[in-house]
Structure formats: structure tokens, C-alpha cells
Amino acid sequence: MSLLAFHRFLIASAIVFCLGFAAWEFRAWMDSRETSVLILAITFVVLGAGLALYLSRLSRFLGYQRGEPPSRP
User: Fold this and answer.
1) 28 is a domain residue
2) H or E element that contains 68
3) Considering its fold, how many domains does the chain have in total?
4) Burial of 9 by CB count in 10 Å (0-12 exposed, 13-18 middle, 19+ buried)?
5) Considering the domain boundaries, does residue 64 fall inside one?
6) Domain-embedded: residue 4
7) Distances (CA, A) of 37 to 14, 22, 42, 64, 72
8) Residue 7: inside a domain, yes or no?
9) Cα 69 to Cα 29: distance, rounded to the nearest angstrom
10) What domain range is 21 assigned to?
């Protein structure tokens, strides 16, 4: 497994965690109606969305062209 593939796996895992935790906190907010719980849920939705955007543009951030394999140093 290449380092790039492992990085993508870690980012995908973080996205799943963020969105899962946000769902859990939103469900807790439905029971308690505490503002702090809702803020935490919204924060993790935003973090998950940011990580998803980063994952979708990872090759561009790293400087790879579309269709071009990563070069070896």
C-alpha cells in the first residue's frame, strides 16, 4: 500500500468518525435540547465536510496532474 493510499484511508476513516459522531450528538440533542450538544454536532458536520472536500481534492493539493501517477523521489 502506498503512502498516498494510506493517507486516503485515514482521511476516509476520519470522515466516517466525524459524521458518525455528529449523528450521535444530534440524536443526543433531540433528547436534551442543550445548545452545547447542538454546537458540537454542527462542528463535527463541518469538520467531516471539510475533510471530504480535502479528500476529493487531495491530488490537487499534492500537485499531481489528472491521470499522472505520483512520481518517486
Assistant:
1) yes
2) none
3) 1
4) exposed
5) no
6) no
7) 20, 10, 9, 40, 46
8) no
9) 45
10) 14-58
The answer to whether the beta carbons of residues 48 and 71 sit under 8 Å apart is: no
Instruction: Give the CA-trace dihedral at 38, 32, 30, 50, to 10 degrees.
Output: 20
Beta carbons within 8 Å of 4's beta carbon, 6+ residues apart: 58, 62, 70
Percent of the chain with pLDDT over 90: 70
Dist. CA 56–CA 12, nearest whole Å: 10
State residue 63 phi and psi, 5-degree precision: 90, 15
Q: What is the pLDDT of residue 38?
A: 97
What's the Cα-to-Cα distance from 9 to each of 15, 27, 50, 52, 55, rounded to whole Å?
Answer: 10, 27, 16, 12, 10
Q: In degrees, to the nearest 5, what angle opens at C-alpha 71 toward C-alphas 69 and 73? A: 160
Whether the predicted model's global pTM rises above the 0.85 cut: no
